Amino acid sequence: MDPCKRETVLFLRRFLEDIALDGPPEIRWLKRASPPVGEGEALGVFPASFNPPTKAHLWILEEGRRKGLKELAVVLDKRPLDKEVREAELVDRLLMLLKLFGDRRDVSLGVSNQGLFLSKLRALQGELPRGARVVLLMGWDTLVRLLDPKYYEDWEAALRELFSGAEVLVGLRGEASWGDLEALLSRPENLPFRDRISAFELPLSLRSVSSTEVRRQIAEGRGIPSVVPEEVKDFIRKRALYRG
What we know:
- The protein is built from nine helices and seven strands, in the order H-E-E-H-E-H-E-H-E-H-H-E-H-E-H-H.
- The chain is of the alpha/beta class.
- A seven-stranded mixed beta sheet has the order 1-4-3-2-5-6-7.
- Helix 2 (about 55-65) links the parallel strand 2 (about 40-45) and strand 3.
- The chain is globular.
């Protein structure tokens, strides 16, 4: 699939239209790893807005690969859970991800019809082979949201179901430290899940990388930051994205 062709854009629009927001949990695959995860192997699932994708996103994925994940699934939400996504529409973000991962045999690319991690896990459970593990990849700020009761009707039941079927691998970014992680996981309500959560540190050069800041710099006419992969930079220039 050539991200530069008009036919690809039209195909992606039809692909997105067919994903029902009011249906049961679903991840519709635009591209699947070859081969996909097998029995007893681990699938890494990385949901984010990727607006735009950055080198920090790539580092988190590669850390998953270093941890032994067989398949890496990059997932966009058709409707974001807690924030409005501006500047680049969903088709543009899918095209940027195809630029990055279109030729990667170990990477799957999909779109979820629901924002919660638990919904994504439910969507996956019916298609995974026996004994396959699910590892949710995320940054520190996403872990904080994951453990926040405001996103759940029944917080305890939802997280017990989530952590019974998935593990979490979190990248410490921004000002987050190992002490912050320990404090979060030592809260009484989070203790039952701490053994299902592991972490790593992003390198100093990537700890403060933010897609929001990338968009701001471009909108202010300061160019495209170096933390954006070259393939994505080229696409942003051609499509004149994020210019305010």
